[in-house]
Amino acid sequence: MTSAPLNPPPCRGARGSDLPAYVGNGTIGLRVREIPLLAGSAILNGVVGPDPDKGIEAAVPIPYPLAADIAIGEAWLSDQPWAAEDLLQSYDFGTGELFSQFLFRIGDVALTVEVTTFASRSDCSLVLQESRITAGQACSIRLRTLVDSRPAQGRMTERRTGGPSAGGGEGSLLWVPEGDLSHCGIAFHSRCSLTDDSMIAPKFGSGPLVAEYRVDLRAGQPVELHQIAALIPSIVHHRPREEAVRRASLGARRGLARLRALNRESWAEIWKGRIVAQGAEPRHQQLIDAGFYYLNASAHRSSPAATSMFGLAHWPGYHYYYGHVMWDIDAFCVPPLLLLQPGAARSLIDFRARHVEAARRHARLDGKPGMRFPWQAAPLSGEEAAPDDGPAAALAAHLSLHVARAFSLDADCTGDLRYLRDRGWPIIAGVADWLTGRLERTQRGAELPCATGPAEVPDPPDNDSFTLMTAADLLKRAIRIGAGIGADIPAAWQDMLDALYLPRRSDGVIPAHEDFRIDEDKGATPSPLAGLFPMDYPAGERERQATLDFFLSRWRDYVGSPMLAAFYPAWAAMAGDRKLALDLFEEGYAAYDAGRFHQCLEYRVDHPDSAVPAGPFLANIGGMLMTMLLGLPGLRISGDSPEAWPHRPVTLPSGWSSIAVDRLWVRGRPMRLIAEQGKDRAQILPA
């Protein structure tokens, strides 16, 4: 039986500059304050508006659906939050439940307030909150639940309050963010354990939807306040308010206790895929569990617009990726989810499949065949939405390769030929066609002029090695998969694969690009190592070892930056250095941990580009999970039998004796992974 995850330590007091807790289910994301009744931030997958600074299509906050308030006499908590004392929060990653506690004191009256907040995985349109208020002495209090629109920019229409006009429940509304690019429906129900009488206010106007209860409490007597809110984006329903009313009403009939139990069952199922690093220090296992949790909490099979670099976590000050879908999602988040939660992985690539026409138009604008996917895909339109002049959008060639590669990995992991033929193959073939049009034939072979790699620099170099190594893997996959389904394979694919030109130095090192210098801007970026893993480029032993030695020796010049640092332990293990693998798990991943509840940051706090805390950063998290599931065990996902995926001896960080996963999903079957230090191969066995 899978062991429970290690939860983060509880947090006491005000959070200071730390990020608030992030609670999500892949369709809804909440930032919950340390006083959780005060409105935080809410993101609903697929709801967009113009970014207030750049004007581009971006994910935008919506009204906070689980706000609440408490009054002792005429003193409301929202009006006097400084009257809250002894703040405590703890997070149960095993169930996805955030627990908050505080004391609300006005004069001689003190209330102990305990709040549990979660986003339902079984009913992914619902978020729920249970507040338990206990009086220290007899008193009368008032309780409010409200949908608070103050954190959002937009307007409220079709507002309905309790009674027949609300269609059930206390109220519902249609929210239209500024710019009118999308809208969403919100409906809410509440229940007070000591009274059935609630007052809905205001009944008219455009203020927050509020339900109020008056309760007399004896000393030591608790009262429970339940909140259930349904949120529906217009991307999934053309009349989202009405659908939100139906979903909220269904949730109310089931009740919070039943929905909580179902949510716990859903998380228990996901945690069967827990990655256990036997012998790792508890802090490292805790961070592995946290990364596992945040990635799975940010994706759901029902996610309509994939997920973003920070999942569905929004907070003022770091929204500089605008909720866009970027290459990191396809390259770093899809592979582990294919093994852990394949339905959620499918939703991420389905986003790309829904926007193939935008990708075809994008390629045609360049005068190229096939499909070219955008660098920063807008959540609703799927079109390019990079801000300003978008240099990376114009010159990065590797993004589309990751999109197509993700579909090939889906085919190898799921074995779903119908999906491959209907959705995956057109994209794999379209990107392969675009790639052959993007490469240029020279006397040296098929070269890639002027293309940005992971090291985004103002003057893109020629022959970026990471892109070319990824291109080699994609073309091989496209040829193999096409042959397997009887598709016509253009001769140009094999011709370009055979002719691919990869820069090489005289000492065997694969440099980052043509005319590479280690002292250039971002020269320590280990992108050729990322070509070896996770892109599986089949370098010869001499160049493989020389490239590992060259870039591993310069890790201090790169760690602190985002994305690739999480792969360092796998690269050190490939070089046979167990101590360095352990050191680099700490330096390349664990050191990015800061603040509350292990929200892995984009940059380490000691990095000069770390302006504000920004997390949980899914590229770092996905890279770590790929290292744990594929890199350290030595697995290569392919069309072969999964028992053949292990392809090299197992080398783990110092002190680690094994990596074990009780349940991975491979071609519709539950499988186990056992990677024991020193063994010739890891094992993938039936679960």
From TrEMBL:
- Gene3D superfamilies according to UniProt: 1.50.10.10, Glycoside hydrolase, family 65, N-terminal domain
Q: Which domain of life is it from?
A: Bacteria
Where the record annotates domain Glycoside hydrolase family 65 central catalytic, the positions are: 321-517
| Protein's name in the database | Glycoside hydrolase family 65 central catalytic domain-containing protein
What is the native source organism of this protein? Sphingobium fuliginis (strain ATCC 27551)
The root-end lineage is: Bacteria, Pseudomonadati, Pseudomonadota, Alphaproteobacteria, Sphingomonadales
